[in-house]
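We modelled the chain as a single entity of 230 amino acids. Its sequence is:
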Amino acid sequence: MALESNPRSSRSARLAAIMERLSGGELLRAEDLAFEFDISVRSIYRDMDTLKASGMPIEATQGAGYRAAAVTTLPPLHLTDGELEALHLGLLAIAASADDSLQASAQSLVHKLEEAFPVEGEQPEPALAVYPFDDAGLALQHLTTLRSAIRSRQRLRVTLRSGSFEDLRPLALDYWGRVWMLSGYGDTSGSYVKLAVHDIKEVLVLPGLFVEETGKGLDGIQGSKITKLH
């Protein structure tokens, strides 16, 4: 089966997919992998060399094929919001590197984390479910400013890539498996707002802090009408 032509069809994505295939423990021939990913056998050989160099324990049996020698299994982990954010930021930083093998490892780890996440609460609409590393730097550059503003109750002017803007009181950051979402109260629109962080073009810190007000704080967001900014 040929690999479909889509944004994931890069070498780093292919390396991640090969890692997943090998992790199943099945003995896979280079010829079969080449057919599956619609590349040459020589390219498979190069990919295997890259994966070995990245530390993946690959066993090669001449005339038989490849398999992963071992897979490390971790016990269940309970992550705080801060720990999850640190992990996500680290993966984004790796994704921005030029090292194919590290990108492949980061992508493979993201897939495993997504499978492990419990499905709870509201989920992002399909338009927001972007591939984890698309425009990775766009989200990365704003998260620190947004977190600081939430802690200090600093008003912000957020300008989106669409050209629209909102003066808002940032209230919370949520991670939905693939997307960071910012919730706040929009002083411009006069309603609660929610937007994807990777859609933000610029964040301007406005003078003056905001104070808790009835109907404008995080405790009032449940059951209120929320405007999704794009």
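As a brief sanity check on the tokenised model: The domain at 136-228 is CATH 2.30.30.100 (SH3 type barrels.). Helices lie at 11-23, 30-37, 41-53, 81-95, 100-116, 136-152.
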